[in-house]
Design goal:
two-stranded antiparallel sheet, 2 strands, 74% helix
Amino acid sequence: MVIKWATLGIFVACYGLILWRKVKISYVSVASAILLVAIGALAPRTALLEAINWNVIAIYWGFLMVSVVFSESGVPARLANYLARSSKTEGRALLALCVLAAVLSAFMENVGVTLMLAPIGFAMAKAAGSSPITYLVSIACSSNIVTTVTMIADPPALIVADATGMKFFDFYWFQGNVGLGLISIIAVAAGLAMLYLTTLRRMKKTVSVETEQVEIQVLPTLLFLGGIAALGVSPYIGIEIGYIGLAVGMIALVLARKQVKHILVEFDWHSLAYIIGIFVVVGAVNNVGLLQDLANGIVKLGVNSPTLALVFLVWLSVALSSFVDNVPFTILMIPVCTHMASVIGMGSAFPLLFGMLVGTGLGGNLTPVGATANVFACGALEKAGHKVRLWQFMKIGALMSITAVAVAHVLLQVFWI
């Protein structure tokens, strides 16, 4: 019992410091993990070999490396320029950019996609004589809304997929039913439609973007496509996805060998350390029984049916995603969803896991700090002299996200409950 209470105290302090953001979150999570192992909440061997999901770490690192070299291949910039030039009105041109941001972010890190398309958004706004706020906020929100479209769109989707043994194509057809990926595609389409109807449709100015000669690099593009294909076939050839992540990451470094030192130095190693620490923290909390207690407590509050549990998890996740980092939240909620499904008597925890993912992923656009891409977009706007007010952001992001989440929620209820 002493270890249980000590674990709870360390856990609360860890998450409190993460929300406070005054100390590097990687230091907080790693220090908390070391403390929990030291007090016996989790055995060192269990922490190292079971609690930490090395497949997730490897594929996260590898595909971030791929996204770096692919973003500089010229293909995304060429596509963006073509879409901007071929659209007749400002609103349609921006919608095309938003669709491109969504498609790219389904396979690439969404911050990178936002930063890559931001200069094109600024150029289009200048050409049309419009404020760039609508452009950059729309692009950032579009890159965030696809976090459950593929297994590799965002770390939470990858974490759930690997924890439950889901394969790449299981996101589209799973256990004889419509998968989360297909549901998410429909939800994203609804969110983009809401963005167009409420904001972009009124942008009637013509926009003329100068043709930009961009050199295309073939090998990074082939690596990008090949990496995705390898993930799809890996279950059928018996290769762990972590090995694929390591392989494509190493190949990416070879392709970018002239910049490899810069890439490795600039890489966000703190985020990797942060995720590793959180895996151990949540593993310890689960090991001492605290997450089982939390699941039982939620059920005792009256959330005692599959329908109510789905409503609770979807919209709680939406609310918390506006200020809580989705990686630790997802790692924390996987065992909670599993325990809840067991207590309620559900045959499978997947409906609750999918609902939690939808809420924390598609719901990340409620505020400018709900996702890292939003923070970067607003920062770029402020540097250019355009301060983004909360209502300006929510007018675009909140309506878009709530629409997408609502559609996904209804489809999960229809197909999975």
